[in-house]
Amino acid sequence: MWLVTTYQHTSLFSLRNSSATSSGGKTNLIPTMYSVKMALLDAAFRMGLDVSLEFPWIRDLEIRFEPPEQAVVNNSFIKILTEPKDKKAGPAFITSVGFREFVFYDGTLKIAVKIENLTQNHIDKLKLLFFHVNYFGKRGGFLQPICQGIQEYLGSTFSYFLGENGKFSSDVIMQYLDDMGPKATFPSINTFDDTAARIGRDRIMKSVFVPYHQVASSRGYTWFKRESSGSS
Amino acid sequence: MTMLMQSLSISGILTIDMHSLNNEGAEGNQLQTRMVHIVDENGEPTVVNAISGDMLKHIQAEHLHGLALEKELPLCAGCTKFNSNRINADAEFFKSLGDKNAIGDTLKKVLQHCAVDDLEGVLITQGGRSTPRKSTVEFGWLVGVPEKTRTESYFHVKFDNNRGQGSGDESGANLGQNIFYRPASSGEYALVMNAELSRVGFNDVEREYQITDEDRKKRTRALLESILLTFIRPLGAHRNTQFPHIVNFQGIVTTSTAAIPAPTVSPLNGSYLDEVQKIQENLNRLFSDAITTYKFESQSEFTKIMADLIEQVR
Ligand SMILES: [Zn+2]
């Protein structure tokens, strides 16, 4: 059983791949499980919940994505503020030009969460939390929740993990997406706490198959499509 | 403070004439304008002119800076000069700070010391810190509506007496006569933006407001006024020689009195106004009538809606 929330992107999306350095601005094709959980924790704050109490069950959520039917990744050079090499002398930030990718989506993004092992109280909270989210990734990459429902099974248009068995699309692109590790602690993922998130414990990388195939590409962009929902 | 509005969003079509807000770089004496590849309403790929959200935010921040000076809101040394380092450029301020690990306390002092750092956000890095203040206002990319935007290249001659005027010439030759091309784009652009009014003066670590109700009111009003001015009186790159003209603005303002964000729909969708209202109906069933929408057809109607909302901040 899955709780599926449908979002419409209302602007261009960008979420830098965790392995990228600050000068390499490759984006993930879809939000990551980590970014969704962070957005849910932020939503919990805004709903006035005690986030340290909600953290364990949100950390452990199993999340899948159905990407929009089409995605166009744009390569772009934009002005950015960056810390200079010599941090002691001179200004805190200097202006430079950085490479960034921005994604235009056609169609809706669906985010599915496995709810079999959740209590009714958590499911009820989760339903509300998803309506409090209006971006994943770079701020300004707005999206809008439009509907929500429960599905027994996910079709082949959803993402899956390396090594999983089942009826999945074979027309896929693999992405390394981050998730919260089962031993992650609340202080380590809290951006306002000095405890650093440790890769491999608090933040783990997973190989995710995204049901996209590349249609065309040039110097400036790469265009992806997936099969239509309903077919398998 | 009796303000009920917790967030505000705008989805709209901005018609701009002859702007040069979005240059990506220069190749020789030719400035390149920013283009993005999208899929049109029929699912076909197309390429359109676009302006990054950061550019709009820069324009809004510049208006806010002017308003803050005029209204005598507190500003740090960096923001007084509209320095992009903001509070990081305020050496005196950092002397007044204590333990660098007391993040909640650092944020509290930042919020009290500078209205622009509060509203626009900053990454505080001085003294070995790495404390983020998330902005209360964000803009998405302005994306050209397919078939309704065009970019042309104009031939310019720059004379010696124009030196240092920010001509955009990046060939290095800045003496004598100089020939260059500059693109100018015109047309309809889809815009989406959001402001989190409930976070004005709010310390995300301590979960409490750090300024008085009266000051929150003043800052919230200044923030809304700066957003209004962004779409009425644009600033930006090359405005000395190529001032962008906003010819029209139509769309929909949404507000939320609850923690759910005021909704947006991409105006690239031809029926976005109806979509926003459908979303409003659905959200209001779940969240007890938290969402209100205000359609506008022109800059003057937009101005009236914003002026009314600013007046409600009491
Ligand atoms: Zn400042």
Automatic annotation (TrEMBL), chain A:
This is Type I-A CRISPR-associated protein Cas5. It comes from the Bacteria. It comes from Fodinisporobacter ferrooxydans.
Automatic annotation (TrEMBL), chain B:
It comes from Fodinisporobacter ferrooxydans. This is DevR family CRISPR-associated autoregulator. CRISPR (clustered regularly interspaced short palindromic repeat) is an adaptive immune system that provides protection against mobile genetic elements (viruses, transposable elements and conjugative plasmids). CRISPR clusters contain spacers, sequences complementary to antecedent mobile elements, and target invading nucleic acids. CRISPR clusters are transcribed and processed into CRISPR RNA (crRNA). Keywords: Antiviral defense. The lineage of its organism: Bacteria, Bacillati, Bacillota, Bacilli, Bacillales. Coiled coil: none annotated. The keyword Transmembrane does not apply. It comes from the Bacteria. NCBIfam families: cas_MJ0381 (TIGR01875). It holds the Pfam family DevR. The keyword Transport does not apply.
